[in-house]
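Methods — Computational structure assignment.
A single polypeptide chain was analysed. Its primary sequence is given first, followed by the predicted tertiary structure written as structure tokens.
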Amino acid sequence: MAELFDDIFKESKIFSKREVLSPHYIPHNLLFRDKQMQDIAKYMTPSLKGERGRNVFVYGKTGTGKTSCIKSVIEKVKGLPISKARITYINCRVYNSRYRILHKIVSDYLPLYAKRGYGIVDIYERIINWIEEDGKILVVVLDEIDSIKDLDDLVYTLTRANSDIKAGGITIVGVSNKVSFKEVLDPRSLSTLDENEIAFPPYNSNELSQIVKERVSEGFVKGVVDPAAVNLAAALAAKDSGDARLALKIIAKAGELAEEKGMTAVGPNEVTEAAKFAEEEIAYEIINTLPEHQRLIVYAIALLSLQGSRYKRLSNEGEQYLFSGDIYQKYVSVSQSLQKEAKSSRWYRKFISDLDMQGIIMSYESGKGIRGHTKLIKLAYPPEKIKESIEKTLQRDTAL
């Protein structure tokens, strides 16, 4: 029976330290992000001195190093001998409402008070009293801030808190994949933000090649990975999105494929084979962490794609596209079935543009002659898998 585990504990001929290839691993040296790191530190300096600083918003596509840089700065702050700031990092995919975020703050710093049953007003007042005890500055880092369901309420609560605090204050550091996320905010919330902005551009092919090369030197057995494989993984990721996470996932998957085949080297062929798996895996991760209504729109597209001839579709060079209007009607129907209020057609059009930009859907304008003038849309990935994946997240959200 023990021989069942022989392969598990056998020393790998491919990997030496597999965890450094994980998207959650934060390297000591964050390549090509010196300016962004300096800007984050500069904008947080007033808070570290005990002053009310301006809020900070960090933007950039997935895989551009936003979270790694923020977490790296937080670790450096923890090492400072004297700081008036208290920093709480919150993953808004998990803590996705005002109540959950305020409760997380209390749990981090006032665990004896973090009991179920307290309402928002009680939690809010306790946080205010805790800040005023010694005039501290609370820095709330909201990663993937656009995932928060009642974002407007949260922003208004946190920014207006500074009017109630007699000594100390609250600073927001928001991290988002989309520059446009603030468009959901009410004018009264926008007027209180007073923010600095930091942009994270996508990596180019040369930068990705250096990032992958550095991780390969730590994560793989020396000499196992062909330099051409590193360059190809970087080029494939740069072509699609400039996403370092995708480049690392491709090279890691290539290593796994080589290991499964009993090989002792990773070359371009393994990278080419790995790219398809990695791209789909990344896509499903992105889809399952989309803001609620964007996810419902993708779900509606998947359902229509699978329902075939019941809905009018257009074939374009062998690929079948759906009419945008049909998708909106299905999205409204799905929302109603889940007892959620669908967004307006104006918001729907904006969401479609966001999904197109992220590569989750493909679309083009039909021109005249097809329902006058409309947008034609199709999924970039198999609808069966997308439907199954989203249904799992819907079940999870219902259970919470």
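Note: The chain has a mean pLDDT of 88.
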